[in-house]
Design goal:
- The protein is α/β, with parallel strands linked by helices.
- It has a single domain, classed as Nitrilase/N-carbamoyl-D-aminoacid amidohydrolase.
- It has seven helices and 16 strands.
- It has helices spanning 15-26, 49-55, 63-75, 117-120, 154-162, 179-190, 263-266; strands spanning 2-7, 33-35, 78-86, 92-100, 103-109, 130-134, 140-145, 167-171, 193-197, 202-205, 208-211, 217-219, 225-228, 235-240, 250-252, 255-256.
- The strands form four sheets. It has a six-stranded mixed beta sheet with strand order 5-4-3-2-1-14.
Length: 269
């Protein structure tokens, strides 16, 4: 199957414009799984909670989720993409949706909020989901989802791997420099494929400027980087993978990555 990522710079609070930009950039992309950045249609560095509410939408009935649904049906690809979610009771979450050619499959709400996200969003509390997805050749694979800063906590990727993920989709808006060198380790230590879709560009709030570091990347279960992007250019990148390669976690005839774990030894008083 083919994994593809889009790296670009969205315009702040210009949802329709950003959706049109993404549609043009994707074109007739041939992929089974397409991962888009965190908050790909709204921008990231919100100036106020009022701006968040202006950009947030219900899932799966909001315009962004519906546009993703149309793209998935037209292309035959599964999409994972980040957007601000507002629930019926007014709660705000930093969320990622999984949309297949058959429609919306599920939502993940970010567990580990970064920086000023804590001023606007509630942390997700439903754990790390793994979805069963079928790629275009008709074979099923297991797709896990985490968002941006979740990578910093090894428990996130490990939880997804223990739940059976073959591939971890990772929509991101990274500003710290350390994630691109760490994701190969997350892939290696969990024996999974990872797909980190980051954005580029800058956003300002008053005198503060956030610079997004690009460097989107796809890693294999051996920790090898299969495809990577630049720091500052709009790019589409892809890699061919076999999800089944993630399922053999036998390290030697005597060692298994998960069976050798000793959780009782890791507990803290």
């Amino acid at each position: 199957m083919r994994i593809s990522l889009l790296q670009f710079s969205p315009d702040y609070l210009q949802t329709e414009r950003n959706l049109n930009t993404v549609e043009a950039l994707l074109g007739d992309m041939d992929a089974d799984l397409i991962v888009l950045p965190e908050f790909f249609a709204t921008g990231y560095f919100f100036k106020s909670t009022e701006d968040v509410r202006a950009a947030a939408e219900p899932i799966p009935d909001g315009p962004t989720a519906q546009r993703l649904n149309a793209w998935a049906k037209a292309s035959g690809a599964t999409f994972v993409a980040g957007l601000p979610e507002e629930t019926e009771d007014g709660a705000l979450f930093n969320s990622a949706v999984v949309v297949t050619p058959r429609g919306w499959l599920g939502t993940y709400r970010k567990t580990h909020l970064f920086y000023e996200e804590k001023l606007h969003f509630a942390p997700g509390d439903s754990g790390f989901p793994v979805f069963t997805v079928t790629h275009r050749a008709g074979e099923a694979y297991r797709l896990g989802v985490m968002i941006c800063f979740d990578w910093y906590f090894p428990e996130a990727a490990r939880s997804l791997a223990l739940a059976g993920a073959d591939v971890i989709a990772h929509p991101s808006n990274l500003v710290r420099p350390d994630c691109p060198r760490s994701m190969p380790i997350r892939a290696l230590e969990n024996h999974v494929f990872t797909a980190t879709a980051n954005r580029i560009g800058t956003e300002t709030k008053g005198e503060e400027v956030l610079t997004f570091i690009g460097q989107s990347l796809i890693c294999d279960p051996n920790g090898q980087v299969l495809a990577s992007a630049s720091r500052a250019e709009t790019e589409l990148l892809s890699a061919e993978i076999d999800p089944a390669e993630a399922r053999d976690r036998q390290l030697t005839v005597h060692n298994h990555l998960f069976e050798d774990r000793r959780p009782a030894m890791y507990a803290l008083d």
